Prior knowledge:
The complex is a heterotrimer.
Chain A: H1 3-18, H2 21-47, H3 54-58, H4 62-66, H5 70-91, H6 93-100, H7 104-138, H8 150-175, H9 178-198, H10 203-206, H11 210-214, H12 230-254
Helix pairs in contact in A: 1-7, 2-5, 2-7, 5-6, 5-8, 5-9, 7-8, 8-9, 8-12
Chain B: E1 10-19, E2 22-32, E3 37-41, H1 48-55, E4 63-68, H2 79-82, E5 83-86, H3 98-108, H4 113-122, H5 138-150, E6 156-160, H6 168-183, E7 187-191, H7 195-201, E8 204-209, E9 212-218, H8 219-226, E10 230-234, H9 240-252, E11 256-259, E12 265-268, H10 272-281, E13 288-292, H11 296-304, H12 368-373, H13 375-378
Parallel strand pairs in B: 3-7, 3-8, 5-6, 6-7
Antiparallel strand pairs in B: 1-2, 1-4, 8-9, 10-12, 10-13, 11-12
Helix pairs in contact in B: 3-4, 4-5, 8-11
Chain C: E1 2-11, E2 14-24, E3 29-33, H1 40-47, E4 55-60, E5 75-78, H2 90-100, H3 106-114, H4 130-142, E6 148-152, H5 160-175, E7 179-183, H6 187-193, E8 196-201, E9 204-210, H7 211-218, E10 221-226, H8 230-239, E11 245-246, E12 252-254, H9 259-268, E13 275-280, H10 283-302
Parallel strand pairs in C: 3-7, 3-8, 5-6, 6-7
Antiparallel strand pairs in C: 1-2, 1-4, 8-9, 10-12, 10-13, 11-12
Amino acid sequence: MSAENARRVLLSEWTKIRSVRSTLWTLVTAIVVTVALGMLISGLIGHNFDDLSPHERMTFDPTFISFAGTSLGQLALIAFGILVVSNEYSTGMIRASLTAVPVRGVLMAAKLAVAAALALVVGMVTSFLAFFLGQSVLGEHSTDIGQPGVLRAVFGGGLYMGLIALFAMGAAWTLRSPMLSFGILIPFFFLISGILANVPATEKVGHYLPDQAGSRVMRVMDDGEQPYGPWAGLLIMTIWVVGALLAGYAVLRKRDA
Amino acid sequence: MTGTTGDNMIEAVGLTKSYGARTAVYNLTFRVQPGKVTGFLGPNGAGKSTTMRMILGLDHPTGGSVTIGGYPYRQLPNAPRQVGALLDANAKHGGRSARAHLLCLAQLSGIPARRVDEVLGVVGLSEVARRRSKAFSLGMGQRLGIAAALLGDPQVLLFDEPVNGLDPEGILWVRNLMRRLAAEGRTVFVSSHLMSEMAQTADHLIVIGRGQLMADLPVRDFIAANSTDFARVRTPDGDEAAREALVKALGDAGGQVHPEADGALKVVGLPLPRISDLAHEADTRLWELSPHQASLEEAYMRMTQGAVDFRSTADQRAGLVQQAPAPGYAPGHTPGYAPGYAPPQQPYVPPQPPVQAQPPVQPQAPVPAQRAAGATMALGVPALPPTPPASPPPVAAPADIPEQPAPSRPEDAR
Amino acid sequence: MIELAGLTKRYGRTTAVQDLTFSVRPGVVTGFLGPNGSGKSTTMRMILGLDHPSAGQVRIDGRRYHQLADPLTHIGALLEAKAVHPGRTAYHHLLCLAQSNDIPLRRIDDVLDLVGLAGVAKKRPKGFSLGMGQRLGIASALLGDPRILMFDEPVNGLDPEGIQWIRNLMKRLAAEGRTVFVSSHLMSEMALTADHLIVIGQGRLLADTSMARFIEENARTFVRVRSPDHERLRAALERAGGRPRQCPDGSLEIEDLPAARVGELAAENDVVLHELSHQQASLEEAFMRLTHESVEYHARAGR
């Protein structure tokens, strides 16, 4: 594939994404929800800091607190990832897309590149906004970007959001149907993963789930619960993402459109 | 079967429907008689569906009324057993099986369950009766809709685009079904965009354009009134002299002669026996002398020309313009029509209630007289001298798409 | 040119398309006929590389679909099912297709104009009628100004004007030397549009012939003559070995003599003719006869 060819397909995918309003709204929602919820929780905790137990005060992680909105905000990015891919199937657009760009890998790579870049930008904006605004309401308990590990956590938060969208895209490519994708991914990330990671019996497995592992990078204070460091956690998440994308690619290659 | 045939007539009187400032249907007065298939034609957005919905009491008329057997639909005693309708094939009931869907309808109107299996057999869905209709193709959905319409064994049937999505066998089946229903004395009212289908199915036509009645007459009369018949003549292959002689003789006798792509001649304005005589006089043998009746499509196009919304700039009726006459072939003098073979000089006049054909009130309303008079023009021959150019000049087929758009018009976006 | 060689598609144990071999040539409109479920859509999807054949292959201008550089400039297709995101405007839909195949952007306005959608280019197809959706699909097919065009049930949802327009469009595209491959269930429409026919039933090729030959081979044709000098004509025809049949309306039907021969006979015998026409059965009749037999055959064979 020539660079010229790549440029065209990328441009085309960019047109596709920017011309559907519902997809763009998910990105706006991701920013607003993550930042607003992060501020709210930061504000509440900052206000009630004195009520915390000594242990909680010892391990208090102001950076991570300002990312409290991520748990909900990531759902919007997952929705973005699902919509970008599975809408092609549910509307039949995939047939037009594949007749225009018949080499499956090219189409998929271009769509991933554009959508992931967009998700990454949104993720970074969200992450930095959530951090700074969160710190501003934490008041005296806040930290700043210059402290050790803080910049890594904020930057990692942006990466996390980009990766979660990519994971959703891989899953959507595997599952095709938007209903199925939403029905599996949203409950999983909203509830099940959290439960698995907090129930002692499944805790060990739960730590290796993509969101649990990936969110380690947003912590500055190590609470010692997870058996890996921030970058190792992100690597585990990346492996999940790669796995999902490979599965999606296999389905796209093998199955009839 | 209940009642006499007169009980089952659909009758619209001054039927009008406005949506705010927009008038969808204006002052429609017509009757749909039992025992016949009545076709309901009109461009998209002409108000066909609105009219059908008003007949079924789904939309309220803003003026006038429409009755079935003398009653407005809502006051019909036991309406589901009197009237059956297929309106929108896409109105599916995904989760339910075909049988459950019909059973539910049957129970609503007190129809015995046995009838459900009967109609499923009639429409050929017995084998898939227990499958969920979500998995149905467009054609199967259509058959299910027809089954629902037939459920109450009604005397009055309305079908909106019944052959949509059906395969050739299904199309043939629907055509025969409608003819059979009419032959049984029922009232059958069918809308369709497929003129060739209509020509084979309908006995009578009601044509509307921009919500107004444009024609209400038998199919045969409609075609005769809105198109030009012609004859196809072929001289022995390779005998150019004979051909030239015949062309000259026909031209001198007042016929208009156009060469066709396959070497035959198209002759307008002379009856077949006269052509035969002329050939004989010119000592030309004929290999073909066949009458051609214009198609319903041609007649319809000519009639509705002015009634199409969003008219585009260029003429898309180029298909009617068979071949531009080659120089020397189209005689420039006034054609003399032989009696009995001339295209009608009079506009059609709807036979029953004549008031219906009053020129519409809208400013851009079609004036049938002009169209009928301009009929010869659209065939690519010089117009009769006094005729104002009512139809757009014929446009030769463009050589290339990008440079020569032949725009069409969008359908109504409802 | 589209070439199919031994194209086969199986879904589990059912065979949707079996060993199809045919070519669709440029310069004519080729009709693609078959009853519902005969494999037409599957075949069209395999031509476009959307479905993978279980065996055999398709070549577009000698190449496999995925080997085409900028495929939309080689082949444009309208598929029966909608292939448009309802939330993306008609213009943007065409824009993303144009960009992916390096098609000049002014071409978008050209095709929108051509199909009559210029006025609603900025509208989302959510509110489009079936006919408008169809026109947008046709615009997408024409976008790359391709030499090969494929239409699956193009008149679906169009009104009489639209039907006539698409018919003329297809004929014009063929007259320009393009390859036009079109499927339809409307036999009367096909009879007006197509020059050549490919008929399949139960996934197998049943016919690949010209329209005229197809009708000739699958339905009755005869010559109808009318003459004031009816008895003399009948005698002349019988002498020439024909077996004219008297019709209730006073005309004669002859199956075993061609029209030209009847004309010559009339001239030799100085008989005036008032009609001499070659009568052909309809495409529908021919199609029914052919596919009906095939269905029966397969039903018996399946037992």
